Structure of Gfo/Idh/MocA family oxidoreductase:
Amino acid sequence: MEKVRIGFFGVGGMAEYHMKTLQQIEDAAITAVCDLNKARASEMANQFGAKTYETLEEMLDAGVIDALYICTPPFVREGIEEAAAARGIHLLSEKPIGLQMAEVRRKEQIIRESGIIHSSGYCLRYLDTVQQAKQYLADKQVDMVLAYRIGGMPDVGWWRLMDRSGGQLVEQSTHQVDLVRYLAGEFDFVEANYAQRHIQRNYPEATVYDVGIVSFGLRSGALGTISNTSLSRHLGRGDVEFFGHDFYVSVSGMTLRIVDDTQDITVTSEMDFYLEQNRAFVAAVKSGRQELVLGDYSEAAVTLEVTLAANESAEAQRRIVIPAV
């Protein structure tokens, strides 16, 4: 194919940023958009030179796209991946890829059996600093992990409802969970405690927590915690720290720090990781090389399983073991 023709289902802020980076990729062309918000769809279509479609099926059947970006909230995912896979249309599914694990596993099997290229929204894997950390940690024994996702609350009503967003760990801190998996290995168990400390003063209808602590064990034997809150107006953090007996590694936003017996280095990336993620996906579609994608749908499913298990743990007030895949 000369250019990879791309359609978008859901054209909110995340989709718009993807579109802006795709404009910088010579082998990509944005050709179609579809959204329940018709005015927003028209706005994005005019801005990026695409055509609007009334329904997903109409867009998929028009013969104008090779790949589909799914940028809807996690509660609006029914039938989308399956419809694209059935037509041989490649997929990038933004995170989180769903809220029901059985449904996500069913979709995963369909996607894998279809043979299409598939990617997910775990963009931090593409950072050069994350790749440097991965290389450094490859032969190290990680003994403790501390992760943080601290900040404010997205200003959308659906985010404040557990049955629509899954809460902060599923919808935001999932990036930190994914980095732990990518850099230190798979989760063995989680134990979570959640609380509503401030949120219902402003949003009485809210069912999500605004403070959460997750303790976990990895299959390697390492232990760790993830601290996340959406009530912090004055401080934001998105860090993951790895401790061994003779080293320390921190991935804090765009900055990597490595300390050991011979060095104490700090590197700050200037990379646009969304651009690199989209460049890899477009190249994978054009070449048919799935291995160019660093975080496929199956990887996203494993990360989702950890975060949903934490939700289950908080509700049941007990440890949840993560099944081996």
The chain is about 35% helix and 25% strand. The first helix runs from residue 13 to 22. The radius of gyration is 20 Å.
